[in-house]
Design goal:
By secondary structure, the protein is an alpha+beta fold. The chain has a domain of 194 residues. It has 4 helices and 11 strands, in the order αβααββββαββββββ. The strands form 3 sheets. It has a 5-stranded antiparallel β-sheet with strand order 1-9-8-7-6. It has a 4-stranded antiparallel β-sheet with strand order 2-3-4-5. Strand 8 and strand 9 form a beta hairpin. The longest helix is centred in the N-terminal third of the chain and has 23 residues. It is globular.
């Protein structure tokens, strides 16, 4: 079989080559005149120098102790943690036409055998039973959840509880975040004295280290509830692979009053974190604390 190769460009290739030579200078000119956006650089801060070790607490022992009857002093909500209501909305005329609502999908008559669920922490749990009722009513229900070794560790607002994977409660009662971190209660219902109002709980189980982690933050206040321009991040780390046992606690000063950015005191809102053999990595949203503490 004879095979022949041609080195003569076809007419279409000649036209393509001419078009390429024409457009190449245009592309080079546009490339030189269009500024290239600099790459995004994410910077972090090593705040390990701002950490202090707290007490070692045992969750099951805390839950086994009766904190005693709670009094009725103090309000249901922390009066400095909720923004003032805006003026009522004004009537702007006729409402826009609404599309008809889509019918809801029908639920299966027989539950899916692969689905498993159970009732976790409720508002009643975190308000009345955790910390002996020395808590505030808090919403929305911010949840942290971690699963491992046959256990489920759940945090909602200002309390935690431990279950097995079938939903069987593993502690005599829920434990407040203040109890877990070794802090005074958010509100002493007997004396009316304010403590630390920790929230935005986040939970994690690390299979590599076989440890459980619980994190939350708080803006500090005086004993009468006046907000201070100070914030803290709290961390509890289990000492074993059992979430019902002992936890070492740590406090990070996140105020950042003298930070290089010059933004002054701030709060570490909605913290989330990850861990590995190299360290603990936390991210949060920073909001400036105004001079009046708001």
């Amino acid at each position: 079989m004879n095979t022949q190769f041609s080195t003569t460009p076809l007419p279409s290739l000649r036209r393509f080559a001419g078009f390429f030579l024409l457009i190449l200078p245009i592309c080079l000119a546009l490339g030189q005149s269009t500024p290239v956006a600099p790459p995004v650089v994410y910077t972090g801060t090593d705040f390990s120098a701002n950490v202090t070790a707290g007490p070692v607490v045992n969750v099951k022992q805390l839950a086994s102790k009766s904190p005693g009857p709670a009094g009725s002093a103090g309000g249901e909500t922390h009066f400095n943690r909720f923004p003032k209501l805006l003026p009522p909305m004004q009537d702007t005329g006729e409402t826009a036409p609404q599309l008809p609502a889509t019918a809801l999908a029908r639920l299966p008559e027989i539950p899916d055998s692969s689905f498993r669920g159970f009732i976790g922490l409720t508002h009643l749990d975190q308000r009345l039973y955790a910390g002996g009722g020395n808590q505030f009513s808090t919403e929305p229900p911010d949840q942290g959840l971690a699963v491992g070794n046959g256990f489920v560790l759940e945090g909602v607002n200002a309390a935690i509880n431990v279950y097995d994977t079938n939903g069987i409660v593993q502690l005599p009662r829920p434990v407040s975040l203040d109890e877990l971190f070794g802090l005074p209660p958010a509100i002493n219902r007997t004396t009316g004295e304010f403590g630390v109002f920790a929230g935005d709980v986040s939970c994690l189980f690390d299979p590599e280290t076989q440890r459980w982690f619980v994190m939350a933050w708080a803006q500090l206040n005086t004993r009468t509830g006046t907000p201070l321009r100070q914030s803290r991040l709290y961390l509890a780390v289990s000492q074993t692979d059992d979430p019902r046992g002992a936890y070492a606690t740590y406090t990070f000063n996140t105020t950042g009053a003298n930070a290089p950015d010059g933004n002054g005191p701030r709060i570490p809102d909605f913290p989330h974190f990850a861990v590995d053999r190299y360290g603990l990595f936390v991210n949060w949203q920073e909001f400036r604390i105004n001079p009046d503490g708001s």
